[in-house]
Amino acid sequence: MIDVEDLLSLVRNYNPKTNEALLRGAYDYGQRMHEGQYRRSGEPYFTHPVEVAAILTEQRLDDATIVTALLHDTIEDTKGTYGEVAALFGTDVAELVDGVTKLTNLELSSRETKQAENFRKLLMAMSKDLRVILVKLADRLHNMRTIRHMRPEKQVQKARETMDIFAPLAGRMGMQSMRDELEDLSFSVINPDARKSIMRRFLTLQKETGDIIPKITDDIEELMERNGVTGDVLGRAKRPFSIWRKMQEKEMAFSRLSDIYGFRVITTSESDCYSVLGAIHQRWRAVPDRFKDYISQPKTNGYRSIHTTVSGRDGKRVEVQIRTRQMHEVAESGVAAHWSYRDGVRAENPFAVDPAKWLASLTERFELGEDHDEFLEHVKLEMYADQVFCFTPKGDVIKLPRGATPLDFAYAIHTRIGHNCVGARVDGIRVPLWTRLKNGQSVEIMTADGQAPQATWIDIVTTGRAKAAIRRWLREENRGRFVRLGQELARVAFEQVGKKATDRALETAAKILNLGSGEEVLARIGSTELSGRGVVAALYPELVETADVGELVRREVVGLPAGTDVNRAQCCQPVPGERIVGIPYAGRGPILHAIDCPALADLDAMADNWIDVHWTEGRHAAVHNVTVNVTMSNDKGVLGRICTLIGEQNANISDLHFIDRKPDFFRLLIDVEVRDAEHLHAVMMAVEADSNIATLERSRDLGRRP
Questions:
Q1: Class of residue 657 by CB neighbours under 10 A (exposed 0-12, middle 13-18, buried 19+)
Q2: What CA–CA distance (Å, rounded) separates 467 from 370?
Q3: What is the dihedral of CA 673, 677, 680, 686, to 10 degrees?
Q4: If 154 and its partner were Cys, which of 123, 150, 422, 612 is the partner (CB 3.0–4.6 Å)?
Q5: Which residue has the higher pLDDT, 242 or 211?
């Protein structure tokens, strides 16, 4: 483990004015709090926070961030408290530690709707202080470096979460080296055979050709010297995952892949960058369509560099990135460069992005999404976006993600232009709306007043802004259908408490819920933005079951100590009448699984700790949510009739989500609240008997396990 003196030495290398007393105090406090705790590797647990702090020193971050790294698990995993951390190390550090704790508790790989909500929380934490996510990324990087000590299934879960969320987020923040390492570590877990195969081919290639990196490095340095340019040349083979991704994207075998070597030229001035570029293009043949000038058109995360690919020594294709020293610092650290220290003072890097402005650019379009799915889609699109730059006929630059179409271009200019788009010309040539745009193209959008968005456009566009605008328009167009469906859902919900969904009742509900009208209430119920039960509860709270669902479940289970927190597993959603087992989870209380839940196969190792529990006898409250997967014909009135059938069985629909829409059939998930297994069976039999139902089954989703 890195001792406190070594850690202080790492910080002093870039910040001689560091508050050594503060760092020593944090080191001692963290070590004391984690006393007696060990990692799966057998090492003392405190080795982890220290390594996280060491990773952050590579970014030359301020004392508060380093202290946060040392303490980031104290509030969650030890007897340390927010108040104690604030008293000892200041409110700034306590807020940062609390923010990291909240991020750690987010189940980012859970089911989509919850994942979207957790992304919102993640962005909220980032908006308060972006250093929270810097600590979290370093925390994930060290966990991935030591992932081999975890159970195999846990390794795969963490690796996929890292590949899907943390690596793209690091890239979106401009921390490219961290993104590369996170991706490669995840790749070694998710597809170890592919990674080993690439490494073997690398070794074979080196035996056949020798190590060409020093040779090409010497060639570039000689060019620079001849042209009077000073700087450094760094060469490396690309990481295995980067090569694998390129092989998949280009559908090429390794033997046909050419540019597997990358070189960086670090100069002292911007003019030197272009001098080196000219010298390289004079010396070697440039590869067409492989030139990008991010100096004149920087990325939104502050990244600046010139990229070119040339046929170098012996015809080997190599990618060369050319940038200044300050640009290189931002390329390595991204948004973190804003907090970078040098010689004891905050480094004034002119290319470092203001975190507040960067975060605003990241989130400005998210709020256009009006539901969880749209929001999550925006987040992922933004994080994965590799930008292309296209021009309007007037010469204005429009930034779009790679794979964007003329429709995306139209919506990026203005929603009205997108809605009225009837065609497009790219570089003066008429093209289909699904054409993928390339860097530097000029795009002209043709519009007509009578044009309106088509449902098929959703599959053509790639940007979150365009998808959200199209969906909003289609929602308004479908308002009449939503109102009719809402009437049926409201009728069933009101009848369950012996009331009627009259116009007067709906208007009153609209006032209580701050909505414009009773019709708006029905439209929201029909589009599942509101539940019928929620509207009834707003009007008649005394008639609706108000007891906490968790408390009801606790009272219904026999075999647990009094007051024990308990929850139903979302993967199998057990209900009274089914055999169950309690699985203990640290810090959360036992989770109830059905005895036939497939997830239990992964929990055999802890079978000795399973808790023998069972449901109480007698009648249960209808609060047990179960998801059913329904495929039904796309005919008028079918959905309303299904909702009526469920209501007639005295079951409440708590949510409804379409997962596939085709011209002839719809697939949807319906969340139904039932009393027990017998009640669920009655509901499913009533629905399945309808001639318009193609399939109906209970949904079992291992991706939603606790």
A1: middle
A2: 11
A3: -160
A4: 150
A5: 242
- Judged by phi (left if over 0) then psi (alpha if -120 to 50, else beta), residue 681 lies in alpha
pLDDT (0 to 100) of residue 53? 93
Tokens of 567: 């929850």
**pLDDT given at position 113:** 43
Tell me how far CA of residue 412 lies from CA of 52, 274, 392, 416, 587, in angstroms.
40, 31, 11, 10, 46
pLDDT of 549 strictly over 60: no
Of how many residues is the chain composed?
706
Helical ranges in 236-269 per DSSP H: 240-250
Torsion of CA 196, 198, 200, 204, to 10 degrees: 180
Give the H or E element holding residue 56. Answer: helix 47-57
In 3D space, the residue among 376, 467, 378 whose CA is nearest the CA of residue 113 turns out to be: 376
- Closest to 359 (Cα-Cα) out of 129, 110, 148: 129
Q: Please, what is the average pLDDT of the chain?
A: 81
Which single residue is written with the structure tokens 């080191």? 27
3-state secondary structure of 286: strand
Active site residues: 76-77
Confidence (pLDDT) at 152: 87
How confident is the model at residue 381, as a pLDDT?
47
Least confident of 9-13, 52-56, 115-119, 325-329: 115-119
3-state secondary structure 351-397: CCCCHHHHHHHHHCCHHHCCCHHHHHHHHHHHHHCCEEEEECCCCCE
Compute the half-sphere exposure of residue 692: CA atoms within 13 Å on the CB side of its CA.
Answer: 16
- Alpha-carbon distance of 19 to 24, in angstroms, equals 9
The single-letter DSSP state of residue 44 is B
What is the rounded CA–CA span in Å between residue 243 and residue 247? 6
Say if residue 56 is exposed, middle or buried (CB neighbours under 10 Å; 0-12, 13-18, 19+).
buried
Residue 36, phi-psi category: left (phi > 0), alpha (psi -120 to 50), beta (remainder): left
Residues 483/527, Cβ–Cβ less than 8 Å: no
Q: 240-247 contacts: CB < 8 A, separation 24 or more? A: 240/184, 240/187, 240/188, 240/194, 240/195, 240/198, 240/199, 240/202, 241/180, 241/183, 241/184, 241/186, 241/187, 241/195, 242/180, 242/183, 242/184, 243/198, 244/187, 244/191, 244/194, 244/195, 244/198
Tokens 């009225």, residue located: 420
Would you say 615 and 576 are in contact if contact means Cβ atoms under 8 Å apart? yes
Calculate mean pLDDT across residues 507-523: 86
Cα separation, 487 vs 509, in Å, equals: 14
Nearest to 478 by CA among 448, 501, 453: 453
pLDDT digits (tens, 9 = 90+) for 128-148: 677 888 898 999 999 999 998
Q: Which residues contact 196 (CB under 8 A, 6 or more apart)?
A: none
Vertex 526, ends 522 and 530: CA angle to 5°?
A: 75
Residues 473-495, buried b or exposed e (16+ Cβ, 10 A)?
A: bbeeeebeebbbbbbbbbbbbbb
